């Protein structure tokens, strides 16, 4: 059974600006200020970033009073990351924090926009490629 053919003319795409011009009908689209998930995050979902921010906002005296045995595993991870980062052992903990936050919150989009006014020479392009290759090799 084949899919029904949709009108993908420029006029139709202008009316339905969604992916490939196939946005849902107006009555099924979210209204301004309306959430796509009105019930919020699933109950019991860990928000590692919230814990990291909480511990980053504490003074040394407040951190010293934290009872390690009463913490959840997520809070222990967050506290360990904060302690390592503040002691200058941030290299490994930074990678772990980035990984955990990406897993918990979703990886942030990174965009590179180069306009025609920003033409690069061949040497500059090669330099960028080299830096990107090194970063990619080190990330793995």
Task: Explain what you see.
It contains six helices and no strands. It has a domain at 48-105. The chain has 140 residues and is mainly alpha-helical. 49% of the residues lie in helices and 0% in strands. The protein has helices spanning 10-15, 48-56, 60-64, 73-86, 90-105, 122-139. Helix 2 (48-56) packs across helix 4 and helix 4 (73-86) packs antiparallel against helix 5 (90-105).
Please give the structural blueprint.
Elements: H1 10-15, H2 48-56, H3 60-64, H4 73-86, H5 90-105, H6 122-139
Helix pairs in contact: 2-4, 4-5
Helix content: 40-55%
Low-confidence stretches: none
Distance between the termini: 43 Å
How does the overall form come out from the CA principal axes? flat
Rg result: 23 Å
Q: What structural class do the secondary elements suggest?
A: mainly alpha
Main sheet makeup: none
């Amino acid at each position: 059974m084949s899919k029904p053919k949709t009108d993908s003319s420029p006029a139709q795409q202008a009316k339905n600006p969604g992916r490939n011009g196939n946005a849902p009908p107006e009555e099924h689209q979210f209204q301004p200020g309306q959430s796509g998930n009105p019930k919020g995050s699933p109950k019991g979902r860990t928000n590692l970033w919230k814990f990291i921010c909480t511990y980053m906002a504490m003074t040394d005296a407040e951190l010293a009073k934290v009872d390690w045995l009463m913490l959840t595993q997520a809070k222990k991870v967050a506290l360990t990351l904060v302690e390592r980062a503040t002691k200058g052992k941030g290299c490994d903990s930074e990678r772990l924090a980035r990984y955990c936050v990406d897993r918990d919150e979703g990886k942030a989009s990174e965009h590179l926009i180069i306009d025609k006014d920003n033409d690069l020479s061949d040497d500059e392009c090669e330099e960028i490629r080299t830096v990107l290759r090194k970063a990619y090799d080190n990330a793995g």
